[in-house]
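Action item from last week, closing it out:
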Amino acid sequence: MNITVVGTGYVGLSLAVLLAQNNHVTALDIVPEKVALINHKKSPIKDEYIEKYLAEKALDLYATTDAEEAYRGAEFVIIATPTNYDDERNFFDTSSVESTIEAARQHNPTATIVIKSTIPVGFTAGTQKKYNTENIFFSPEFLREGKALYDNLYPSRIVVGSKTEKAKQFAALLKESALKEDVPVLHVGSTEAEAIKLFANTYLALRVSYFNELDTYAEMKGLNTKDIIDGICLDPRIGNFYNNPSFGYGGYCLPKDTKQLLANFEGVPENIIRAVVEANRTRISYIAKTVLQKKPKVVGIYRLVMKAGSDNFRQSSMIAVMEELKPHVKLCVYEPMFSETSFHGVEVEMDFEKFKHNSDVILANRMSAELSDVKGKIYTRDLFGKD
């Protein structure tokens, strides 16, 4: 089958690689450097399985910047372009999705369009009405940064926001390319599928916020956070997972999805969703104030990335903490994936030994073995070395 995937970020590239095992896939992107890397079997993003599959598997995958070439002959067009949250409009900026739909319909009006980008609840129904077609539907993704292809190979579930034959065909494509057997497949309306995506990510943000607030309480009261979490999480209804305190949630999805869900709640009574958004801001402020109470002359920021195995700085909680600290203390950043000499007006130190020596306190959202010789300087809330 001929499939076109628009966008080669975590979502798009992982889907392109997944489906190229059994189909002819064209990946469309506006960045020539990314296209060139993919065509040379190299990944433009950090993801172990994507890198491995591109290098070792016989994939029927071709990348291009030519939109007409990409859309021509495609039976499915999968949209995986970014939708950033616009704080001024209190809504996702869906312009990239809208322009992609226009282009796809212009070059290939018979293609089935599958939206994988995260969108507001009700977006797809409005789009179907605008074009008077059911041939556009939404299918949420549930991927982790750095493990996107793995999560497509071993999906927790496949959700498709349509019950048409084309939708069933698309679900079958995802299922046959996965390595996991007996993957649950759920066909719902596109509006319900949009809600599934936003409510799922907001629950994850809620869980992060819950254990972070528990940690704030324990630290301020002089209690052992780890012991409390261990005792709570032995309850099988809670479970011993996704419970490691941090400086706050961040990344591609959780910050924008929680805000979007809150915006979608306009006119609907709610307390919890707003609290999730506010709790993250409170946690970040608490971390910054706690560090300042140590009265350091220089605070070292160890890594800007969201978590180990990621190359994403976007909406990182560490950057939010850094911005709170910046007016009050000298900062220095160590981030080997960043090549500039400054970041957001803060000095970037390339020499790790010098970074450790010059920092009075080192902030580490997640611990690393390379910090073992300066444990006395480290401030982290990483208790379990995971998540």
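Closing note: The chain has a mean pLDDT of 95.
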